[in-house]
Amino acid sequence: MGDSKPSGGGGGGGSGLQLDLDAFGRRLKHLYDSWRKDESRSWGNTSAFAVATPPPSEDMRYLKSSALQIWLLGYEFPETVMVFLQGGGAGGEGGGSGGSGGVVHVVCSQKKAQHLEAVRRVCAEKSGGIEMVLHPKPRSEDGSSQMAQVISAIRASGAGSAGGGPVRLGVLAKEAPEGAVMEKWAAAVAAAASGGEGGEGAVETVDVGPALGDVLAVKDDGEVINVKKAAFLSAQALKAFVVPKMEVLIDEERSMTHAELMEQTEEVITDPAKIKVKLKPDNCDICYPPVFQSGGQYDLRASAVSSDDPLCYDSMGVIICAIGARYASYCSNVARTYLIDATKAQEKAYQVLLRAQEAAIAAIKPGTKLGDVYRAAVAVVEREAPELVAHLTKHAGTGIGIEFREAGLTLNAKNERTVKPGMAFNVVLGLHGLTNPEAGGKEGGEANGSAEGGGKEGGKEGKGSAKLRSYALLLADTVTVRSAADKDRWVDVATASASKSFADVAYSLKGEDEEEEDTDKGKRPEAAGGAAEPAVFARAHLRSENQEATKEELRRQHQAELAKQKIEETARRLAAGGLGAREGEGAKRQTGDLVSYGDVDEIPLAMKDYKIQVDQRHESVLLPIYGLLVPFHVCMIRNVTSQQDGGHIYIRIIFNVPGAGFSGSDLPMQKFPDSVFIKELSFKSTDSRHANQVVQLIKTMSKHVRQRESERAERATLVTQEKLQLSKGRPPRLPDLWIRPSFGGKGRKLTGSLEAHLNGFRYSTAKPDERVEVMYGNIKHAFFQPAENEMITLLHFHLHNPIMVGKKKTKDVQFFAEVMEVVQTVGGSRRSAYDPDEIEEEQRERERRSKINREFKSFVSAVHSLWEKDRELARLDLEFDVPFRELGFHGVPHKSSAFIVPTVNCLVELIEVPFLVVTLNEVEIVNLERVGLGQKTFDMAIVFKDFKRDVLRIDAIPSTSLDSVKEWLNSMNIKYYESRLNLSWKAILQNIMSDPEAFLADGGWEFLNLEASDSEGDESEESQAYEPSDLEEAASDDDDDESEDDESVVDSEEEGGRRRVRRRRRGRLGMSWRRRP
Questions:
Q1: CA 178 to chain centre
Q2: What is the maximum alpha-carbon separation in the chain?
Q3: How far is C-alpha 987 from the geometric centre of its chain's CA atoms?
Q4: CB-side exposure of 930: number of CA atoms within 13 Å?
């Protein structure tokens, strides 16, 4: 534990070290309160206790001295001595009186003293009167003088003890001195203990390890959260990496050693982004190297290691997986046992073990003795399988926290301590030394297909292998104790996401022929009435003896399961009226009362000549009609044209009138229902110069007014944002960025800088009016895309509510830097690949690309840290997604081809404008159109859960990407269908919304399932009727014909789909085999 990670928090420390001063003060006070009360009588009437830490080490170890430092400070300080005194006694140089609160003396290096100076300044204030005294040790000294000062303070702290006996000093007796500092301190304590020989001034040592264990056992809310995060990481590593990895190995009959699987799992834990876990890698580590065991050699002790033997997955084999992850130095543990072609005895033993562990977890309640927890597990085994009691482990786990094993909280029959809220336990239960008589001893030799990389023959011979005769079972979960019960349950099982039900851990390798034999054997004799009892359902198989299932078949199985879930989900949403509202449907434009002049005197004198006049100030046009100048507001003019004919020019003015396309709220006839409206006027003039000028002025003024009204309407729909709170210090800053959409206006465009403040980003240029503020609370998705094959590195924000960038209303704001300079070679001649100038230019481009990517990454990391420190921001769950280029594909989402890439939560295209951001959680289904028929490309139609939202189309995707697109959709649990032609989605969604009950009753989206109809072998005419052209024609057909066609289509396809789902059980993602039912 020499290189422990920080436990989070901030507030103090120098040189970039952030110490949570509030947590330190709160926990130090709790430590002293526990010491003074000494309810467990484990402090031994000590007036002082000392904790010394060893030098850093690469070995994985758990020391109470290191755990105490991490608990108090969030970091481990190697080669440091901390002495805690009751009351005063701050002797030596720099010592204070201390009062009655207490004093903490720290002997450390000068650099560590600099880090702790911020703690020392606020120690008394934060902890209720407990002072800290630092004794910095110069590099040239061994610390003897500083330790002598502390020993004097220890003697002084016990000077007033009753009877004048020796000073009782608490130590960690089980931690042997290691390193120069610990050895020097141990020698100083030993000298002090022998100096007085029990008389006045002598020091007597007492082991306070159990007392400190009691203090660390009960976690506060922050500690419980860290334990749960660590447990989530452990469970996800098992669920999202280990299990799929093992399934691939088994399916493809590949060999991998336990040690190799251990190394790959360790890499996943230390880099959680690989399994889509949103935890900072700096805070993640392993508690112990992951343990994988199979092939008859099992060790259920915590010290077990993964061997170099290959993973054994033969029939009747047992694989034990144990994973422990740490988050911010807090530990967790999860263990699962996977069974291949389990026998009845193995199944019974597992089920008994599972129920015993669940009984132990259920028994954990505040006030319950720890011994009763273990006894609850034993009771289940004694009741259901007495023969297994002798094979049960001697305890049911231990407490867990900063230390992987909190020794005082062992769940065994002898422990009389009680459970308290805030405790965390690693509940481990196993059965060891079990024998499988069906394995047949040595008759089968040592054949093991997986061990030697063999194929099916090895798997069959393994039935008699001695490696399969002996086996063990193990289950482990991390649980935390609540302060209040939830439905009579007092614990949270933090690793519950890793399923341990028998259906999810048992697999079958049997082929189809073997399944049929089992089924025949399982048939019961005919009843008295002559009817035969139903046959026992054959077990799903891992590998077929004649043919291996393809990935496509497994995708179909997974998609069939998703289809069921989609129907249920859609039914719940439609029942709740969750169709949503159409996005982007803003308020309709209101023209209001259009008044050119309030009074005739407002008409300028220059405008009173009897000819067409344009008054730009009042946005009006004065037209001569019957000897009068009649004003018309420019908003009432729809169009104006001019035409030359001989010596005359004609001006034609067309007005906005009822029936000309205005919305109902803009129709003047609603205010003046009895009025007659002028539709158009024509004027003839001989002054072509004046006529052309009038036409140009009217068009220009009309354009400006329409643009202004449009901006006003857009701003009217904007959501009022909170005010930006500027950082007091220097905020994270990224200079020399461009913005999209760009600011309007003329003049040279300027780059700006992006700053991250307390509650939002601010982008500004040198121009005072060019400023954009993006609030953190308004960010729906944030993306960071480094430049790889692109010309730019970018940060992109997709917002909940639109904002104004210049005069543009947008939901997407992007800040980017160009990594390559756009240059053009004069002369156009090709340059040699060995041209020194060309090589130098390429090198500069690579360096510039790398430099900009590093700057962006550093900014993103700083923003992440800012988000995590603030509790309010942490609730927003903001994180920068990085697109996965390896999963990308080309397509046409708008008008031009672009490279579209998935992220963790979205499907995006962030280079070409307009941008594409699709939130995967908002997707109902995806239909892949124009698939097959020798097509070089296909289309993707994305249907959203909001059925009023337009279907998004991505056209012209290369057919070479079809398999990878389907694999990605399947991995994201998105239901997809395939069709040979493009569908008319507008008509389909209208039909669904008009009668959602009928849509669900007819099988939901299964009318799109071509495979269901193909499986029937003879497609009917009705199954071909639901094609795009038929849908368009159906709009003009009578309602009776349409309803009959639709009904027949859904019935035939849905029926075939149901039969197909009944034949196939749920399969694992991307695997050619399935779990045992």
A1: 42
A2: 131
A3: 36
A4: 16
Phi and psi based region of residue 11 (left: phi greater than 0; alpha: psi -120 to 50; beta: remaining): left
8 A C-beta contact, residue 12 and residue 122: yes
Among candidates 245, 248, 205, 231, which has minimal Cα distance to 50?
205
Are 234 and 241 in contact by the 8 Å Cβ rule? The answer is no
CA atoms within 13 Å, Cβ hemisphere of 998: 14
> In the sheet that 167-171 helps form, which strands lie side by side, from edge to edge?
131-137, 103-109, 81-85, 48-52, 167-171, 203-207
The answer to whether residue 681 scores a pLDDT higher than 50 is yes
Distance between CA atoms of 220 and 205, rounded to whole angstroms?
30
Q: What is the DSSP string of 893-920?
A: SSSS-EEEEE-SSEEEE-SSSSPEEEEG
User: Is the bond preceding residue 914 a cis peptide, omega within 30 degrees?
Assistant: yes
Number of Cβ within 10 Å of residue 373's Cβ equals: 26
| Element containing residue 291 per DSSP (H, E) | strand 291-293
d(CA 629, CA 649): 20
pLDDT higher than 90, residue 466: no
Listed in sequence order, the residues at least 6 apart from 1032 whose beta carbon sits closer than 8 Å to its beta carbon are 984, 987
**Alpha-carbon span 1051 to 1002, nearest angstrom:** 7
| β-pair partners for 615 | 620
What angle do helix axes 144-157 and 179-195 make, rounded to 10 degrees? 40
Q: Say if CB 154 and CB 105 are below 8 A apart.
A: no
Please report where in the chains the tokens 């170099």 appear, as a residue. 308
Whether residue 651 contacts residue 690, with contact meaning beta carbons closer than 8 Å, is answered with: no
User: CB of 28 within 8 A of CB of 151?
Assistant: no
* pLDDT tens string 517-570: 554 444 444 433 333 333 333 333 444 333 344 567 777 888 888 888 888 887
Pairing between strand 733-740 and 808-818? antiparallel
Residue 120, Cα to own-chain centre: how many angstroms? 38
Q: Is 933 left (phi over 0), alpha (psi -120 to 50) or beta?
A: left
- Is 80 exceeded by the pLDDT of residue 271? yes
Q: Could you tell me whether strands 506-507 and 489-493 are parallel, antiparallel, or unpaired per DSSP bridges? A: unpaired
Beta carbons of 555 and 967 less than 8 angstroms apart? yes
Are 785 and 885 within 8 A, CB to CB?
A: no
The amino acid sitting at 408 is: G
75, 707, 714 from 805: Cα distances, Å: 45, 15, 12
| DSSP SS3 for 100 | coil
Residue 569, H or E segment: helix 551-575
User: How far, in Å, CA of 388 to CA of 433, rounded?
Assistant: 10
Amino acid 673 reads P
Integer Cα distance of 601 and 147 in angstroms: 98
Q: Can you list the alpha helix ranges (DSSP code H) found in 158-178?
A: none
Pick from 53, 73, 81, 59: nearest CA to 122: 73
DSSP character at residue 4: P
Residues ≥6 apart with Cβ < 8 Å to 672: none
Contact assessment for residue 323 and residue 459, using Cβ atoms and an 8 Å cutoff: no
Element containing residue 791 per DSSP (H, E): none
Please write the tens of the pLDDT for every residue from 94-106.
333 334 579 999 9
Q: Which of 269, 312, 307, 260 is nearest to 288 (CA)?
A: 269
DSSP assignment string, 525-563: PP-TTSPPPPPPPPPP-SS-SS-PPPHHHHHHHHHHHHH
Q: Which helix or strand (DSSP H or E) is residue 681 part of?
A: strand 680-685
- DSSP structure class, residue 662: -
- Are 923 and 943 spatial neighbours (Cβ–Cβ below 8 Å)? yes
Give tens-digit pLDDT for 315-361: 889 999 999 999 999 999 999 999 998 999 999 999 999 999 999 99
Crossing angle, helix 209-217 and helix 21-37, to 10 degrees? 130
Q: Give this prediction's pTM.
A: 0.52
For 90, phi and psi rounded to 5 degrees? -80, 75
